[in-house]
Design brief:
Elements lengths: L5 H4 L4 E3 L15 E5 L5 E7 L5 E7 L8 H16 L2 H4 L3 E6 L8 E6 L2 E6 L2 H5 L1 H12 L3 E6 L3 H4 L5 E6 L6 E5 L2 E5 L14 H10 L4 E5 L5 H8 L4 E6 L2 H12 L9 E5 L2 H10 L4 E6 L11 H18 E11 L6 H15 L3 E8 L17 E7 L1
Helix pairs in contact: 2-5, 7-8, 10-11, 11-12
The structure holds S-adenosyl-L-homocysteine (SAH).
């Protein structure tokens, strides 16, 4: 359609249904198609997805490039090599190797835990090239196992069924990784996403550094990543809350895997955070350091209003529970809420709580979760470290 080629010319990888004037020939789900501008100029090659509003995802902006096994070998090798450049990523046992669109592989997520790669295929095009991706990952990493976790909700939008299971090597058992000196078990078969939230790796390290001598409240703790770093950093106490009992069981096992930590300082609470924060407030509790890392309240901009109220609510309660001089580390991983809006919500929460607070740091995902310049959607995780005056 006239003018609709602009975003692709700027290397944005999504072609929306409303931008497609016509389709030539018989094309099936996941097939590679040539994408043409309104005047017939070739723009590149994409994977066709008839069921999704994102009708095609660009594999390449070079209209001559062939999409075959060799293409995936090149892209996967480049993604793996890019991580090796950054010293902070070099020795990580848990590492994101492929971050979808931002690594030139729309819909493909690959996380490495020890010698197991967990692969999530979230688009029709990615689905089509499963075998090529597995072969390329095995070659680029030398890993013994590739396990598929293509069971995220977004598969439904692409008209794909959930699929999990071993793709290369044996079924993985319990995998233990070490992150900043803390041992963590990763349940790649049943855990959230690929088993763990690798994007918060650096922020967990920062939390550990800030925790010394502080009473810590870790909300939405999952398997205790932030909690264990806080204990390792010398927190005086860590209260962790999550509403998933399997996550909390994982957290308890993780604590047991780290006998160097003082387990007597840790308390785990199976509760809804919204209710638990209100109950803590009623009980007159105070904390020196509060971490809020909720799930995605707004998967897209359409959910932004309701999500904004939820963020405001927990941040308001968080500020009210802080002791003077306390720290609030607060996150949003909602694609539908940008950093500006998130900062406004948190500022509004501080205002309503009647506290003076300032921002010490703006936080983001670790660099194995890059955001391509042309793909701002890749910058989904944003956080603020705030200090109450
Ligand atoms: N901070 C964690 C990741 C958090 S993921 C880490 O570093 O690993 C979000 C967590 O919020 C999940 O474990 C989920 O079970 C939990 N959750 C979702 N809604 C909740 C609610 N209303 N109350 C408590 N926990 C909730």
């Amino acid at each position: 359609m006239p003018g609709k080629e602009r975003s692709v010319l700027r290397r944005h990888p999504w072609v929306f249904a409303g931008s497609v004037a016509h389709l030539k020939g018989r094309v099936r789900t996941g097939d590679t198609v040539d994408v043409l501008a309104d005047d017939g100029r070739p723009l590149g090659r994409a994977a066709f997805s008839p069921h999704s509003q994102i009708r095609a995802r660009m594999w390449t902006f070079d209209s001559e490039e062939i999409i075959d096994h060799a293409f995936f070998k090149r892209r996967v090798a480049a993604a793996v090599a890019a991580r090796a450049v950054l010293p902070e990523l070099r020795d990580q046992q848990g590492l994101r190797l492929i971050h979808g669109e931002s690594d030139g592989l729309p819909g493909v997520i690959a996380d490495r835990y020890g010698d197991t790669v967990v692969l999530a295929l979230n688009s029709a095009g990615a689905e089509k090239w499963r075998d090529a991706l597995v072969a390329a990952l095995v070659q680029a990493t030398g890993c013994a196992r590739v396990f598929e976790r293509s069971d995220s909700d977004v598969r439904g939008l692409e008209g794909l069924q959930a699929r999990t299971g071993a793709l290369h090597g044996s079924e993985p058992g319990a995998i233990v990784i070490e992150e900043h000196g803390v041992r963590l078990e990763v349940d790649v078969r049943g855990g959230h996403k690929t088993g763990f939230y690798l994007d918060q790796r650096e922020n967990r390290l920062l939390a550990g550094r800030l925790a010394a001598g502080r009473s810590v409240l870790n909300c939405f703790c999952y398997t205790g990543g932030f909690s264990l770093q806080a204990l390792a950093g010398g927190a005086s106490s860590v209260l962790s809350i999550d509403s998933s009992s399997p996550a909390l069981e994982g957290a308890r096992r993780n604590l047991a895997l780290n006998p160097q930590l003082d387990a007597a300082r840790a308390e785990w609470r199976d509760a809804d955070v919204f209710e638990a924060l209100r109950a803590l407030r009623k009980a007159g509790a105070r904390f020196d350091f509060i971490i809020l890392d909720p799930p995605k309240f707004a998967p897209s901009a359409a959910h932004a209003d309701r999500a904004a109220r939820a963020y405001k609510d927990i941040n308001l309660l968080g500020f009210r529970l802080l002791s003077p001089g306390g720290l609030l580390m607060t996150y949003s991983c909602s694609g539908g809420i940008g950093l500006d809006l998130f900062q406004k919500i948190v500022a509004g929460a501080a205002g309503d709580a009647g506290v003076d607070a300032r921002i010490l740091r703006r936080l983001a995902a670790a660099p194995d979760h890059p955001a391509a310049m042309a793909f701002p959607e890749g910058e989904y995780l944003k956080g603020l470290l705030c200090q109450m005056v």
